[in-house]
From TrEMBL:
Coiled coil: none annotated. This is F-box/kelch-repeat protein. Pfam families: F-box, Kelch_1. InterPro entries: F-box_dom, Kelch-typ_b-propeller, Kelch_1. It comes from Actinidia chinensis var. chinensis (Chinese soft-hair kiwi). The keyword Transcription does not apply.
């Protein structure tokens, strides 16, 4: 695999370059500080790498492998500030250095321990995330924004009392740390959320006293603020969302415990600030993922077929899943390296992760993968950084 070999060689060379840059930076600082005035020292330390223009220095830092990011963040405030910015991901993309890692929320076989763990495309584990601040939640939403993981709202239980939460926490995958973001306007759980055009949308869900919600709000990372926008035409909970071509699609879920509307697809156009709807949705979805320009779903009533949605013509295609046994055994989805991963919800001795490659030759789309979380997968996101 020439591409894989070249990629590993490039990462190894980048690692050496990064080590040399750190040593050079420290040596240059110690020698130069003897000769500079106090004003010169302030200007000198404001540089990302002394002796280099900032655009060149930023490119040099962008060449480092992801495994070095936490150490890099401790070198200086300028390095840390750059690594926290959108620009860092942009420069790494231009340099061809973006690395995809899979962040999997797993639970052990006994159903007690829950944690986020990080896997790469070879299935190698890159550690476990620090525990998220705040009380334990269920029914929360997850989204990826500018190389960061957002864990949004949910249902918390404190001292025997349950309540919906409006808390939002962000995990910086470069610096390996959690931080608190602005609270939502409406506390909610079992809602839909997705990133579209650099914004995160939260749609519907359940609020106080379990009431179904039709409210919608959007998060702008530039001012760390949630803003309420036009509501859905009807309440909707237990739904999911995804973004295609700058529009937000909301599918599945119900409007009440007795009357459903899961066949409807609500579509929001941010440019027009308005909703429209289609009647060609997926029902009772247990797993979903976006891969390329298509949506992959698995329905509760048919967990031996993938339902693939093409937003270009609003059509669905069914693809059989090559497994036997009880159809009650479901899957959770993940995406990595432009392929769909199916993690079984039954962790037996012979369990393997299934891999579906939509770009493979006909008849060879399905394979098994070495990528396997330590426990059962509750949800997963892919972060490029």
């Amino acid at each position: 695999m020439p591409g894989l070999v070249c990629g590993k060689k490039k990462l190894a060379e980048s690692n050496m370059e990064f080590s040399n840059l750190v040593q050079l930076d420290m040596a240059t600082r110690s020698k130069s500080n003897l000769l500079l005035t106090s004003q010169d020292i302030d200007d000198f330390h404001s540089l990302i790498l002394p002796g280099l223009p900032d655009d060149v220095a930023k490119y040099c830092l962008a060449l480092a492998p992801r495994t070095d990011f936490p150490v890099m963040g401790g070198v200086s405030k300028r390095w840390r500030s750059f690594m926290q910015s959108k620009e860092f991901i942009t420069v790494r993309k231009l340099a061809g250095m973006l690395e995809e890692w899979l962040y999997v929320l797993t639970i052990d076989d006994e159903g007690k321990g829950i944690h986020w763990e990080v896997l790469d495309y070879l299935g190698q584990k890159h550690g476990v995330l620090p525990s998220m601040p705040g009380p334990v939640k269920t029914g929360f939403g997850v989204a990826v924004l500018n190389g960061k993981l957002l864990v949004i709202a949910g249902y918390s239980m404190i001292d025997g009392t349950g309540f919906p939460s409006g808390d939002v926490f962000q995990y910086d995958s470069c610096l390996s740390r959690w931080s608190k973001l602005a609270n939502m306007n409406v506390a909610r759980y079992d809602f839909a959320c997705a990133e579209v055009n650099g914004m995160v949308y939260a749609v519907g869900g359940c609020g106080m006293d379990g009431k179904s919600l039709s409210s919608v709000e959007v998060y702008n990372p530039d001012d760390d603020k949630w803003t309420l926008i036009e509501s859905l035409r009807r309440p909707r909970w237990g739904c999911f969302a995804c973004g295609f071509e700058g529009k937000l699609y909301v599918m599945g879920g119900r409007s009440s415990f007795t009357i459903g509307n899961s066949k409807f697809v609500d579509v929001y156009n941010p440019d027009r600030h308005s909703w429209c709807e289609m009647k060609n949705g997926c029902v009772m979805v247990t797993a979903h993922a976006v891969l390329g320009k298509k949506l992959f779903c698995m329905e509760w009533k048919n967990q031996r077929k993938l339902a693939i949605f093409n937003p270009d013509d609003n059509t669905w295609k069914m693809v059989p899943v090559p497994v036997t046994g009880s159809s009650k055994i479901g899957f959770r989805f993940g995406t990595l390296d432009e392929k769909l991963l199916l993690f079984s919800l039954e962790n037996g001795p012979g369990y393997h992760t299934l891999l579906y490659d939509p770009n493979a030759a006909p008849g060879s789309e399905w394979k098994t993968s070495q990528i396997k979380p330590s426990g059962l997968c509750l949800c997963s996101v892919t972060i490029k950084a």
